[in-house]
Amino acid sequence: MSTLLEEIKVYKETFKKKAPEEKQRLMAQATKELEESGIAQGLQKGDQIPDFTLPDAAGQQVSIKTLLAQGPVILTFYRGGWCPYCNLELKAYQNKLSDIKGAGAELVAISPETPDASLNTKEKNSLEYKVLSDVENKVADQFNLVFSMPDYLIDIYKDSGLDVAAHNGNDDWELPKPATFVIDSTGEILFAEVDADYTYRTPPEKVIEFVKSI
Predict the structure, then answer these.
(1) What is the mean pLDDT of residues 174-203?
(2) DSSP codes, 125-148
(3) Could you give the CA distance from residue 81 to residue 141 in angstroms, rounded to a whole number?
(4) Separation in Å, CA 83 to CA 50, 67, 88, 163
(5) Residue 26's domain is classified under what CATH number?
(6) Residue 85 is part of which domain span?
(7) Of the candidates 183, 78, 170, 162, which has an alpha carbon nearest to the alpha carbon of residue 127?
(8) Least enclosed by CB within 10 Å: which of 30, 38, 162, 204?
(9) Can you tell me the distance from the alpha carbon of 93 to that of 108, in angstroms, rounded to the nearest whole number?
(10) Bridge partners for 175 per DSSP
(11) Is the pTM of this model over 0.85?
């Protein structure tokens, strides 16, 4: 079975062959500008996470405090089910779910999509872990992950028929940076990986090995 990073590499190569050069240039420019801006750096190792409760894909309220009382939590923020890199990541974590549970951890994924959109993502990828809906990026903002998409990038997405704001149930065109955290039962972040490059994702194997080491 291919690893997540291998699958991402294959997808990127296909995208480069098919997408117009101007589209590729502008998307790369947006990533570079985000990285250089210094915004949305994310919470870091040693930080305490905010206490939060969010609805899952079925509309049930899920408390992070309740989950942490049972052991460490792997928390991953993704952009939405419309994002191919997010779907590759979500499926890769699903494939390693038994290893994650075997290491004694709980897996939770969060996006700014509405519960209905989150349910579509969960069903499409046959996800058996918690997928939470952070409408208006309120929790992602507490994790210092939120940024506004530049107008030229919004235009590219709209031209591709992709209305991110509609998926999120608002008009904000704001997204969280993809980020993965490991949090202990006290709410302290033990592992943090945040990247301005939306095509990079933390491999599940890396996180599992870390959880096993704590």
Answers:
(1) 97
(2) TT--SEEEE-GGGHHHHHTT-EEE
(3) 19
(4) 26, 27, 9, 12
(5) 3.40.30.10
(6) 4-213
(7) 78
(8) 38
(9) 10
(10) 147
(11) yes
